[in-house]
Amino acid sequence: MRRSLTIAAIVLTAAAAPKAQQPVGSPMQTVNYASGWTFTPMMGFGETYDDNISLFGVSSGASASDDFVQEWQPGADLHFGGKHTDFGAGYSGTFLNYQTFSTLNRWSQHGHVVFKRQESARLKWTGHANVLAVPSTDFVDVGGVPFRRTGAVTSDGRAAVDYTFGARDSLIVQGGFQTVHFEEPLTVDNILHGGRVFEGSGGWRHRLDSRVSIGSDYTFRRALVVGSIDPFILHSVEAGADYELSPSWTINGSAGIVYLVENAIDDARLGPALRFSAERHREARTLRAEYIRSYMPSFGFGGTVRDQEASLSFRTPLFGSRRIYTEQRVLYRDDVPLTSAFQQLPLRSLRTHSMLGWAPQTWMHLEVFYSRTQQTNHLALGQLYRNRIGFQVVTSKPMRVQ
Question: Which regions of 183-297 does DSSP assign to beta strands (E)?
Fold first, then answer.
């Protein structure tokens, strides 16, 4: 039942949180903390070749837009593990130092706080918050946002309560918020708005046997996009099921409807809401595949979009050694506008990341990587590509705090 609760929480929170695409080290790395306080300083250095630092379209006729970028990556993490309480807070930054175009030098920064509390065998509650500042919009995974060389700041927070009724039934109730702010919120072509969204949800699960759980989820989402007259209100109702194929394999999915409430620029709409994911966790191997379809607020063009996204990520050791590993990630997103009151464009985005790493010591990781970002819309300059290849050295040393 405890595992089913965790799966349901992941399903309910997956849609809203922004994700950085330029982390310190490998985002799928896991750390096994000891009980008590642990402080972990981190430092990294890398160099990257970027073939489109200005995010120009392929038909823009722009001059050279490539450069070599040094990346200095300081960070720190503080963690407390107790019998019933778990707390974590951390900061990671990346200073981008361009070899030729030094006017583009700037910081990318991320801070987070996480709190978990097991009140009893039946009651558990969690909370987390994140703040992210990045130099361009392609480093933040938020639906309906065109990729531009414009800085973005996002913040999000969420609190959840898990309660188990007896041996078979569980309930998860949670609420959260998210804000998106662009340094140039209203550009000449009026495509970067920003805004905020509040979300509340509830999920119920009933365990049929040791492997299968069924239930239902409800989500309310209220978004206010900068420049819009009315908020965009979405209701989603889904029926879901979780299936544990084995101790390492889990499959869960849900299907239902999403309803967009009529406002000043949108007619009322009703559409399908689908969600499917498969996860495998075994020793140092991690794999996750996910597909989501629903309506989402667009913080780029404004209004709402029909959002479809598919992602695959995995991490595994190589050659039978824990010191050598690889990580692969791919995310495809298709955003189709629902608003017809003003100009909106369909956006198709693809992100891929491939990394090969070696850990000569437990406190040091040497990694080489290649990442590609591309986006297509219907404008004359609507095809955009960005390739980055480079290496990074990341060091971190957990220290017990007495």
Answer: 195-207, 212-225, 232-244, 249-260, 269-282, 285-297
